[in-house]
Every structure is written in structure tokens, then in C-alpha cells.
Amino acid sequence: MIKATSDKQSALAEVIKRSAPKEGICETSIPSLFFIQHSTAYGPVHSVYKPSVCIIVQGEKELLLGGERLLYGPNHYLVASVDLPVSGQILKASDSAPYLAMKMEFTPAEILEVMEEGALQFSTAEDPKRGMYVSEVERPILDVAVRLTSLLVSPKDIPVLAPLIKKEILYRVLQGKHGSALGQMAIQGSNTQRIRDVIDHIRREFNQSFRIEDLADIAGMSVSSLHRHFREVTAMSPIQFQKQIRLQEARQLLLYEDADIIEAALHVGYESASQFSREYARLFGYPPRKDINRLKKNGAG
User: Residues in domain HTH araC/xylS-type (predicted)?
Assistant: First the structure.
């Protein structure tokens, strides 16, 4: 079994090396499927993970979600069930053994469809679980991943077969040890789904101030329940979540659109440029201008 799993990982590694012509994240011709390749340790990089399944076939990566550390490598896969701001860095990578991974994004509707077709049921009364987790990878998931990536050599089959194989991957993940954490996200009326509604609202209105009572109304919860459940899913409070979204958006404006510091601060909802600069430095380790100059010097721009 161990050798069979290793063979599947080797097959995936060959597809990724062949299909990812450059360093970083590469789109594929299969919708919502991405390959990642890095030949050196890399990061930390701040980003917002969309709902997705990520399988590493070579190398090792660390993610920080709030104050929680998630470490995973070729024996694991990672699932993000909701949008989550994280900091990540690749710990193991080299020219001879580059970091190689595949990421498949999905939507709540796709999860719900698989649950209905597979007659998978999860209790709506269950308390929310963390919206990101690492689980041991098993051969059935690798089998399906190999079949999905193999479609890249047969483009005419992608429109018909890719959606079916994607469903099978989601079905396997839902049946895994932590599958209920993913299933709860899609069930209408579950506590996790209601927290997801709050997350979606903050994502859309990240540059607007909010009252915690208004977020509680969106979730249909008391303020205390909202705080407790939101922290359980995201490992942070609603205000901390919004702050990370705001600062990541501001960083993109400074880096790629040459916005000045005051302009970026105002755009993402800060009234004080000095407060913006303090919180920016706290998250990214450098004040805005120094951080952007450093990133551009290192080729990020």
C-alpha cells in the first residue's frame, strides 16, 4: 500500500513538472485546478485561501491561520472550507526536489450536490469546526487526483469527465476523518453555513465599518454565539478577520497599482494613515513603503 501510494505521488509529480512551466501558481486547462511549483524555500506569503483541496506531492509547507500553525507535506492534504486569510511559507524545496502541489477549488453548491447524490448527511445542530484542516492522504484520493490531472493530455475529455472526477475527489474528502467540517459549510441552516454568510459579508464589505450586532443578525445568532462560532471556524475574531483582509488588499494596491500610502489606507477603510501603517507593519513585518520596496526588489512586482 505504501509503495502504491508513493507511485501515485510520483505520477502526480511528473504531471505537475510537465504542466507547470514556471515558478509559482499555474492555471491549467481544467477549470478550478491549479499547479504550484517552487525550486527554493519561499515566503512567508499572505493570501486569502478560497474553498479548496490542496495535495502536496513533494516538499513541505507551513500555514499560519490566526495563531494556529498547520504543517503538511506529501503524506497529507489540506482543506479550506471557507475563505480564510493566511500566511504561508514553503519550508522544503530545491532544484533537484522542487515543491510540487495541486490545488482544486470548489464552491458550496458543488459540495451540496455531492452530498445529495452520495446521500451523505451531517447534523445541522453540530457546532462549527475549524474552516481549515490537514488530513492524512489516502490512496483513493491520490487515485482520483491522478485521473483528474491525466485529462490534461486529452483536452477533448475535460468538459465531460473533469466535473465527474472533481465530484469524486470531493466525495472522498467528505468521507474522510474531518469530512463533516466541510459538509457543514454547505448545509443551509447549519452554524458553519451561517458563519460562512458572515465571512462572505465581511469579504464583500471589507472597507466598511460594521457593528457586531449587525453581523449577529446576518448569522441569526446572539453576539456571544457569533463570537464563539466565528473564532472556531476562522481562529480569529470578526474584527481581526476584517483587518487581515483590509491589509492584504492594501498591499496589493501598493504593490501592483502604485497607490500611495494614504490612498491605499482610505481605499480599504482606514481613516488614519498612521494607524494603517502601524497595523500593516505588525502583520507584514515592515512599514508599507519599506515592505513594497523590498517586494519589488525581490521580483514580486
Answer: 196-294
Q: What is the CATH number of the domain that holds 47?
A: 2.60.120
pLDDT at residue 299 in the model: 65
**77 closest CA partner among 28, 139, 126:** 139
CATH number of the domain to which 244 belongs: 1.10.10.60
C-alpha span between 273 and 263 (Å, rounded): 9
Residue 150: inside a domain = yes
Residue 298's pLDDT is 74
CA distance 287 to 285: 7
- 12 pLDDT above the threshold of 60: yes
* Interatomic CA distance for residues 191 and 228, integer angstroms: 11
Number of domain units in the chain: 2
Domain around 262: 240-297
Q: Which residues contact 25 (CB under 8 A, 6 or more apart)?
A: 34, 35, 36, 103
Count CA within 13 A, CB hemisphere, residue 283: 27
Could you give the CA distance from residue 25 to residue 9 in angstroms, rounded to a whole number? 19
DSSP secondary structure, 85-117, as one string: EEEEEEEE--SSS-EEEEEEE--HHHHHHHHHH
Mean pLDDT throughout 128-146? 93
Task: Kindly tell me if the per-residue pLDDT of 291 is higher than 70.
Answer: yes
At residue 252, φ and ψ (nearest 5 deg) are -65, -40
Of all residues in the chain, the percent with pLDDT exceeding 70 is 97
Q: What is the pTM of this model?
A: 0.91
Counted residue by residue, the chain has a size of 301
Confidence of residue 300 (pLDDT cuts 50, 70, 90): low
